[in-house]
Structures are given as C-alpha cells and as structure tokens.
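User: Hello, can you help with two protein structures?

Assistant: Certainly.
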Amino acid sequence: MRGIILSCVAAGTLAASVAFAEPEEDMARQAAMAERFDPFDAATAKDWSPAFPFPFFRSVSEGDPDEVSLLLKPGTYTVVVLCNCEKIGVALKPPAGPDVTPDRVNDQGAMYSVTVAAAGEFKVAADMQDCAEASCGYAVKAYLKN
C-alpha cells in the first residue's frame, strides 16, 4: 500500500513539475534576480526573516501594469522590489488609504517600510516606463521584523 501511495505522489509531483516547468532562460533570469536580493538578505539576517519563502517573480510590459498581492499579518515589514529593465514605476498600496511612501526608490526598484496593524492585502503595483525592452522582469520580496 505504501509503495502505491509513494508512486502516486511521485507521479503527481513529476507531472506537476513537467506541466509547470518554465524555459531554462526564465529560470536563469529568476536565479539572477534572486541573487540581487542577497545584500538585503545579509543586511536583515539578524533581526528580520523572509515573510514568504521566495521572492515573487513577475513581468510587466509598457502600457500593461501588473500587481502582486501580499497578504500581510500584523507586524513590521520591509518590502523590496527590483527589476531587470531600465525604468519601472512601483507603488505599494495598502488595503485602505494612500500609497506607502518608499524609503528608497530609483528607476530599477524601490524599498518600503510598513507597519501593519491589522492583517490585510497589500498590492505592489508595477508599471514599465520608457524602456527599450518589450517586457521587464521584476521581483518582490518582503521581510518581517522578528
């Protein structure tokens, strides 16, 4: 019986990974983007931990904005957004009220600090602006203060 269950789980896992596999170039781009978070990981290692196991990898095209939803529980967060293009506009939108003002921002990303009083859905909105690329990859990573 155990062998049958393991075979079904292994077959399901294999089928899922084949069905959702991305091209190697996308995986290489995601790995390169993930490495760009290393300085933030090192700087926050003592007092902060990742709010989610992995960064959220997305892409955005000029004239077609994109959003990432972050379900945040009460606590203090640093949210970092990085892109691999020439110019991206980013905003962190709370469930209610005005956008969060970034601590740091440039054409290739932004960093936000936010204290969440009640659990809610925050949205990271990305908009590519005046970029030579047709599509821009970007990533979002949130850190929670311990």
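That covers the first. Now for the second protein you mentioned:
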Amino acid sequence: MIEKLRQRDENDIFVYTYNEGVAAFNCEDYKIALSKFLEAKNLPAPKAKVLFNIALCYQNLNDMESAIKILEEYIEQKPFAYNALENLFFLYYDLSDYKNAVKYFIRCIKIHKEETMDSYINSKQFNANSEYALKFFNNILYTEDGKYLYMDLLKYLEKERVTLNQTVSMGMVIDMYKQYRDYTNDKEETEISISRCYAKMNNWDKAIYHAQKAVVVNPESYEANKQLGFVYYCCSQYDKSIDFYKKAIELAPNLDYKLHSNLAYAYEKARKLPEAVRQFEVLLDKFKNIPAFFEIKYHTEYVKSLIEQDK
C-alpha cells in the first residue's frame, strides 16, 4: 500500500512538472520548457514522451547535436516512433550527414512510405537546394536497402512534383534515372522512364530515342513497346505507332483496354478506317465493363459513317 502511494506521488510530480514544461513550450519559452522537461526526465517515474519534447526544445534553441542525441535515446525505447525518426532524418539532412539521413529515411519509409516521400519532396530542404537533393539521392542509391527504394522514389518524384513547366526539376529526375541505370545496369525500365520524362517535356526526339533503346534491350517488353507506340503517336507517326501498339497487344492482349483504344485511334489518324473499326469492335468485345464503353461505341459508329462517306 505504501509503495503504491509512493508511486502515485511520484507520478503526480512527473505530470505536474511535465505540464509546466508543456505550458512554457506553448508560450515559446523554450529555455524554461527545456529545464522543466529535463527535471521531469530525472524524476523516478519518467515517461518516454518527455524525451521527444526535450529534443523539440533543443531544436528550437538551435542545439541540433543535443536534439539528435535525445531523439536517438528516445527511439531506443520507441523504435517505431515515426515523428522522432522523421525528425532525425531532417536533422541529419540539414547537417549534410547523408549516411545517417538515409538510415532514418529508410526506417520512415518502412513505416509510412507515401507519407515519407511526400513529406520530403514537399519540404523546404528538398526545394531549397537541388544539389543537396542529388547528394541525398546518391547516398540512397549506394546503400543496400536504399537501392530498392530509389526507383520508387524517382517515380513518385516524377509523378507528384514535376510538371511541364519545371524542366529543371525534370532534368534532375532524368539525371537520377541515368545514374540508377548505370549503377544497376537496369537498362530496360530506366530507358522507359527517361523516355516518359522527355515526353512530359515535349522533347519528342529524345523520348523516341530512349524508348527505342528500351525496345532494343528487350524486344519482348510490353512496357517498352507501349511507350514507343505512345511517343510515335504523339509525333503523328501513326504507322510506326501502330506497329509498336500491335506488338504490345500481342505480348499482353487482355491487360489494358486503353492500349486497344490507342491502337484504334492510331488506325483512325492514319486514315485506316476499316482497321480502326475492327480494333474498336475488338476492344468493345473484350472489355465490356470499362467506363468509356458507350463513348467508344458511339465513336465506332462515327468512324463507320466516315467509311460510308468515302465510298
């Protein structure tokens, strides 16, 4: 009974001291908050959460080394504490310690992949200095765990952050794809990705060149043939587009209704209207539950009417 009362008193003292620290922190008096949190930490019944708050105080007081030390102590007790791991990642990143930054970035990725990628790519650190971003990405690539995340991160970056007006950023992505290709010797997927980037920049000559390289690496690649068909279509080279769309469909006839649609439209653009109708009808027969079913059906009738007009 006496032991229980003693434990309760110790817990009450901790809570009171901890709350004083919280109140000071909320008033942005970080020195007072730090002293209260440190006092709470040294009480007989400390809670792990006080360590995280101590680290936040050190961060706000620009004592980053102390913040890192406390956060690493905290994650020894709470190894899956995402906020602490993310803070460690950014602290090491700001110190240009990319080896440790990568270590904590990967731990964050394993807990919340999309959230971690989004947090970094939208951070002031990423957007302020592309040179540092490249160094960080290089360190990811050259670690055993990070190598497997590198391509996913690049695709996320390409998809979420780079628009047609951000050609410098897209150029950075292309450079990183090339580095990945040269390091891993994964030529097929990276050439497709590079082609896709150049297409987003409307640089069609290079988009075609890299898609061609992907097809040379693996002539039986569905994705490579589809990409080359796409870039030829965008350049109004419809006969070439047809050849590679057909090849992609041969490789995976039931995978993607949009590919069948693209082939049909390529026939139409090439003024091969009977072939376009046949391809539209194949599409409608194979994929009856697609969202655009009736739209495509009506368009098929329109193409048939064009054939009648040409007679």
